[in-house]
Amino acid sequence: MKFKIFKKKKIGLLGHRAIIGYAFICPFIIGFVFFMIKPLAQSLYMSLCNVELTPQGFNMELNKFGHYVRALTIDPEFNRMLTETIGTMFFQSLATIVFSFFVALILNQKFKGRAMVRSIFFLCVILSSGVLVGLEYNNSLLASLKDTIEESGRSNTITDVLEKILVSNTGGVNGISGKVFKKVFEIIDGIYDVAMASGIQIIIFLSGLQNISPSMYEAASMEGCTSWESLWKVTVPMVSPLMLVCWIYTIVDFFMKTDNQIMSKINEQMIVYLNYGYSSALAWIYFIVVMLFIGLSSLIISKVVYKNE
Fold first, then answer.
1. How many other C-beta atoms are found inside a 10 Å radius of the C-beta of residue 100?
2. 3-class DSSP state for residue 53?
3. How many angstroms from the chain centroid is the CA of residue 76?
4. Is the pLDDT of residue 35 over 80?
5. How far apart are CA 305 and CA 244, in angstroms?
6. 53 forms bridges with which residues in the sheet?
7. Widest CA span of the chain, in angstroms?
């Protein structure tokens, strides 16, 4: 009787990386299964019901899609807020990606004090943590200081004058070019928010830049490429897969912020008016729209990124 000896297949480098990756995301998967699925199901059911808070608990009466119809067809603010929030999300995310990429390019250069400069930019990650953001938004001293700065800064600055000149010379605010310039100046005015939201993206881009082989730049230089051409023909294609990762992360990060219009309206309906069913419907509509936006933009970006196969 012959016995066949089965040899174990050796796990390659990609297999080891996959195992390490699953090990890192395993705590999140476990936490999601045990702590997130049930609240998500309850929230979805609440969005389909009229919810009343009683001494015995929640009293839910099935309303099917009444709250969704109210949000999309009756509520005079929600559609406008949703459109403006998605537009702001797009431009803010695009500005964050561009800012993070070029800061990572600067930090990847060799110069004196590079470690200190990297540490300064890494402070964006620390300062954007939940505790310090809470201190920033809930601190009465900082709030009064902000009001004082806004009151004393109403005089025309260089950016204000430049904005008025460009907008007036490009068809006004109602023109297409005028709207573009207005959006650009809004991003410039909000550069603090862009810098605060770019800490993780800078680190991701920096790690990708450090993994590019120097021999690729040497070969490009031998072929006569300038530094500008090497940037677009070597650096950008090699880092482009990370742009997709940073894009999704940036959108999700913006989606979770509590200071945008939609999240403020959801919190108002839930906390002030105790409309748990309606607030749940608003949250689910916002979630679905953002997921569609992520899926569509990711599909477009994945078609143009460089795949090292």
1. 27
2. strand
3. 27
4. yes
5. 8
6. 58
7. 96
Distances 187 to 49, 246, 252, 259, 278 between C-alpha atoms, Å: 40, 18, 19, 16, 32
Distance, in Å, from the CA atom of 65 to the CA atom of 303, rounded to the nearest integer, reads: 36
Beta strands in the chain (DSSP E): 49-54, 57-62
* Angle made by CA atoms 244, 248, 250, in degrees to the nearest 5: 115
Query: Is residue 141 predicted with pLDDT exceeding 50?
Result: no
* Cα angle for residues 50, 286, 132 (degrees, 5° grid): 105
First to last CA, the chain: 45
Contact partners, residue 225, CB within 8 Å, separation at least 6: 233, 234
Kindly tell me if the per-residue pLDDT of 151 is higher than 70. Answer: no
Which amino acid is it at 287?
F
How far apart CA 220 and CA 238 sit, in angstroms, is 14
pTM: 0.71
Tokens 């600067």 belong to residue? 106
18 backbone dihedrals φ, ψ, rounded to 5°: -65, -40
The alpha carbon of 112 is separated from its chain's Cα centroid by a whole number of angstroms, namely 32
Strand-pair partners of 60: 51
Distance CA 203, CA 283 (A): 31
Question: What's the rounded Cα separation, in Å, for the pair 296 and 248?
Answer: 11
Which of residues 176 and 18 earns the better pLDDT score? 18
Show the tokens assigned to 146. 């902000």
281: buried, middle or exposed (CB in 10 Å: 19+, 13-18, 0-12)? Answer: buried
Residue type, 258: T
